[in-house]
Amino acid sequence: MEKMNKYEQFNVKYNKQHYDIYEFLNNHPGGTNYVQLYKEKDIAKPMGLYDHSKAAFYLLEEYRKGGREKSNTEEDLERFVNWNEPMFSQVTKLGTNYYKWVTSPVDRDLRLFGNPILEYLTITPWYLVPAIWIPICIYFVIIGTEKYAQITKDPSPLVSVLLIFTMGVILWTIIEYTLHRFIFHIEPSGHSKIMIYFHFTIHGLHHKVPFDSKRLVFPPFPAAIITYTIHKLLSLFLPDSMLLLVLAGGIAGYVTYDMIHFYLHHGAPKENTYFYHLKRYHNQHHFAHHDNGFGISSTIWDKVFGTALKLRQLNIGIKW
Question: Binding site membership: which residues?
Fold first, then answer.
């Protein structure tokens, strides 16, 4: 679809209500080519035909002319919070409504903390991840190679170093899957404020505001804490000759993962490519199947552990 200027609209109708979904066009999981046919038309038939999830219908209300806030119905969970205030101090008030609220996406920017320093630490432009972690990865490779050669007395350690580094990359894919499935997607009890705080700050906010580009990659500060923890755990099992090289491989895997994650939300991969499949897969995780499809950079561990999503065949390819 040709890019439209900011004054243009994309009006549709659903259940006698009028919506302007212009701001959603580039984020639509089904691509712009599936949507552009319905400009100025009723979308009730295609919404049913393509089996849209509850999250899709909830998100649609974001674009209702007159605003969601005027629709104070039981289905409108946004009535429980004030989007003009920091969200961290409000989420525990949701109680048993929290998980339903956090898995009902909206198209807004989210402020997490009132304190500007804390808020700054949670906002991360995508380029900050490689800018910080690639130099650290290179440093670990250099120091790790020197340590490996010194301890093993290997005068030509290149092949061994590459193998150990690759071990670290593979290890990251397991960590990525494990963190996403068992930590990020732990369903908090509505009666546990600590678990709600933890879930929301670690991953829940991303599912609530999936289009907020400042919250698509992991902030460096918590990432450093996780890296330090993994380093300490690895030191219990790995010899000193391998430790830094495995960690370097893990960091390389993490950077790749975070860049892929950002691209899956904002990129436009071409049909029949690896990233085209991953983008469809990740969209299904976000908007239809929160309890499956945990792989981001790869779907291999989903297949191994039985959490893989099956994508339906399409008559025509998606164009984002």
Answer: 28, 52, 180, 185, 203, 206-207, 261, 265, 282, 285-286
SS3 313: coil
- Residue in 282, 248, 247 with CA at minimum distance from that of residue 262: 282
Using DSSP, state whether 136 is helix, strand or coil: helix
State whether 8 and 153 are in the same domain.
no
Residue 271 falls within a domain, yes or no?
Answer: yes
Report the CATH number that the domain containing residue 48 is assigned in CATH: 3.10.120.10
What does the pLDDT read at residue 48? 84
Number of domain units in the chain: 2
Same domain assignment for residues 33 and 154: no
Binding site members for heme: 28, 52
Boundary of a domain, candidates 43, 75, 107:
75
- Same domain for 287 and 143: yes
CA-based nearest residue to 221, from 121, 125, 136: 121
Q: Convert the pLDDT of each residue in 253-265 to its tens digit.
A: 999 999 999 999 9
Q: At what angle do helices 158-178 and 240-266 cross, to 10 degrees?
A: 50
Q: What is the reported pLDDT for 65?
A: 92
Distance, C-alpha 256 to centroid of its chain:
13
Given a contact cutoff of 8 angstroms between Cβ atoms, the answer to whether 184 and 202 are in contact is: yes
Q: Assess contact for 58 and 48: CB atoms under 8 A.
A: no
- Residue ranges of the chain whose pLDDT lies below 70: 1-7, 69-74
Containing domain of residue 131, as a range? 118-305
The pTM is what? 0.92
pLDDT of residue 2: 47
Binding residue positions for Zn(2+): 180, 185, 203, 206-207, 261, 265, 282, 285-286
Q: What is the 3-state secondary structure (H, E, C) of 137-172?
A: HHHHHHHHHHHHHHHHCCCCCHHHHHHHHHHHHHHH
> Alpha-carbon distance 58 to 102, whole Å?
12
